[in-house]
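Hi R.,

Here's the chain you asked about this morning:
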Amino acid sequence: MIERLVATRLILPGVLAVFGVVFLVLLGNWQWQRLQWKEGLIAKLEATAQADPVPLQKALEAGDDIDELRFKRVVVRGQYDHSSEMHVWTPGDGGAGWSVLTLMVLDTPVSIRAGGANDRIIVDRGRVPDAAKEPKTRSEGQVDGLPKIPGSANFRMRPTISTIPST
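And here is the predicted structure, written out as tokens:
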């Protein structure tokens, strides 16, 4: 039998075919495991998005790992510091616009791990069209007092290009 395969030069293609089939089975298995992981991740994010918001400090105290808190629904209360409003250009289907980021001074400082108490957070207040970039053109959005706002937590533990010092 081997002599016949050698004579017809089928050994190398046969060995390559066996290795190819084994490789494809392993790739399929890897993709199946990846699918299971991704579906679990999506289910976890959907459950997090449906949960009732909890106070930010309570969410921080309950979580062992900061990555577990990403996108957790939280509620905060504080005073917007409109003088620190920042704008980030964002393209969109309706034309160019600006994401409005505003510093909020929390009424109750929160502690993130051993980093000490933080009394300020950055709130993404949404997107406005180019014509409404300046705060004076959208006075209804310049909230005074101590608003209580729900949102999703998104922690960045690495330094970023731009930082705002806490004073």
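One quick note: The CA atoms of residues 10 and 20 lie 15 Å apart.

Cheers,
M.
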